[in-house]
Design a protein that fits this description.
The protein is mostly helical. Helices cover about 65% and strands about 0% of the residues. Helix 4 crosses helix 5 and helix 7 packs parallel to helix 9. The relative contact order is 0.10. The N terminus is likely disordered.
Amino acid sequence: MLEKDELDPRRGVRGRIESGHRSGANRLSLWLPAVLLLSSVVASCRGKSELADAAPPPSLHVKSAKESERAKDDLWRRAEEGDPVELAHLANREGALGLLDGLEEGGPIGLVALAALPFADDAEAAYQRLGEILRQLDPAEIGPVLHAVVDIARRPPAQTEPVDPTGRRSCAEALLLLAGRKGLSKEVRAPAISALRLLAERGAVRADIIPTDLDPK
């Protein structure tokens, strides 16, 4: 016996359309986890490739045995106190590249350079190197680097073309690897996720692949 929907062409079409929508939704629910996993694998492979060419990370918590010329510089010494005005003055004089040179020195100077980077007009030029460092440092030591990335990402978008869109995407991939490691502490994953959401607004990473398990329930 024919069903009522089969006797009524309009209802039969509607039923088939609704069935198709349900089928499409089911396929999407099956494919989405696979897409997220693939994105993570691609980011990991690309990260390993970039890491092979990256310089070793600076030792931020160990003072260099070599006497630092920057430590004798009045502006670097004043910025070491953490005053935003002095950090901004240092960033204005050095620019992102000068601060990255200071970062490579490590120790107290490296930490000052990280604190000053978000004040530099061309701060986004630091994304590539910061991403490399995030991939290499022990998670217990990356707090200052993570916070520098978050503060750079919080800057209002520039009215000109991005300084280094490729470096920004590379840094976002490094953050995604950290954010996806659920065995890491919240103190590491939370700022990584915050930075990712800010970078998603700039098109550096897809918002739908950013972990949400730390969000308030």
